[in-house]
Amino acid sequence: MTALFALATSLLWGLADFGGGLLTRRIPALTVVVVSQAVAVVVLGSVVVATGGWSEAGPRLWFAVAAGVVGPVAMLSFYKALALGPMGVVSPLGSLGVVVPVGVGLALGERPGLPQFAGIAVAVAGVVLAGGPELRGAPVQRQAVLLTLIAAVGFGTVMSLISEASTTVTGLFLALFVQRVSNVAVGGTALYVSVRRGARALPDGGGARLVLRLLPALAFVGLADVAANGTYSVAAHSGPVTVAAVLASLYPVVTALAARGFLKERLRAVQAAGAGLALVGTVLLATG
Question: What radius of gyration do the chain's Cα atoms show?
């Protein structure tokens, strides 16, 4: 059960990152974040009303609020780091956020067996290699490394927070709704400040018309991200967090494979090796 939901999380996050990456080539990154999360707010709000999720309101929702505040900061740090590059260094470093939920699980007393420890090590190595790290000849600005590490810690923190935000299915819908409202509030504020400083909120050569035309794709990115948070929460509650976190962090492999399948991007040897190691680590974690 844990492995199934955690792997579903990786699939959803990987596809959401792939879609978000494509969209940011045509629409400003902040606008992608705000619009996609706003769509998620509308959908989740309807689900909460239909399921009576408001009755699950309680102190645990503060975890959802915190996740909603940290998430956009992590995402924007990651986008900024990608802009500073090189992507072959930034992407693998960003996936190291898995250390946060794994560390939390170990601190709370979880003790995976030897096969699972081996699976964690192999899977994390596979995730890093799947990003295609540039080991030579890639000058990296200190600011890019710092921003990437901030993003990684943020991503890992969101995973830990959202797993604590609810204990029931209806409560999870409410927690995800609150998280998304916080996302939009933080992202919207950042977008407003950015526009006041002279940046554009709408893309050149298309404006609002292009955003509307791409609304289905934006909705997919937002809803896939929401679903990933939901499946991760279920995975973290149904088994060891250390296992759920590592399996859920295989999304860079999914993104790389999606780029290969849809954009015909060729996988580098190191990426293919990383995907293979991630698969081996998955088998060890699932059977350990």
Answer: 18
Q: Minimal CA–CA distance to 276: which of 133, 126, 128, 131?
A: 126
pLDDT in tens, 146-171: 887 888 889 889 989 998 888 888 99
For residue 6, give every residue at least 6 positions away whose Cβ sits within 8 Å of its Cβ, in sequence order, or none: 231, 232, 235, 243, 244, 245, 246, 247, 248
Q: For the chain, how long is the longest CA-to-CA vector?
A: 56
pTM of the full structure:
0.82
Separation CA 2–CA 247 (nearest Å):
9
Omega of the bond prior to 112 within 30 degrees of 0, cis? no
Please provide the distance, in angstroms rounded to a whole number, between the alpha carbons at the two ends of the chain: 14
Neighbours of 220 (CB within 10 A): 17
**What is the C-alpha to C-alpha distance for residues 81 and 251, in angstroms, rounded to an integer?**
19
| Surface-to-core class of residue 137, CB atoms within 10 Å of its CB (0-12 exposed, 13-18 middle, 19+ buried) | exposed
The pLDDT of residue 116 is 74
Which residue is it, tokens 């260094």? Answer: 89
Which amino acid belongs to residue 192?
Answer: Y
Both tokens of residue 283?
Answer: 């088998």
Query: Could you report the per-residue pLDDT of 116-143, keeping only the tens digit for each?
Result: 778 778 877 776 676 666 555 555 567 7
pLDDT at 38 over 80: yes
The closest alpha carbon to 32, from 86, 80, 76, belongs to 76
pLDDT in tens, 188-204: 999 999 999 998 888 88
Residue 236 identity: A
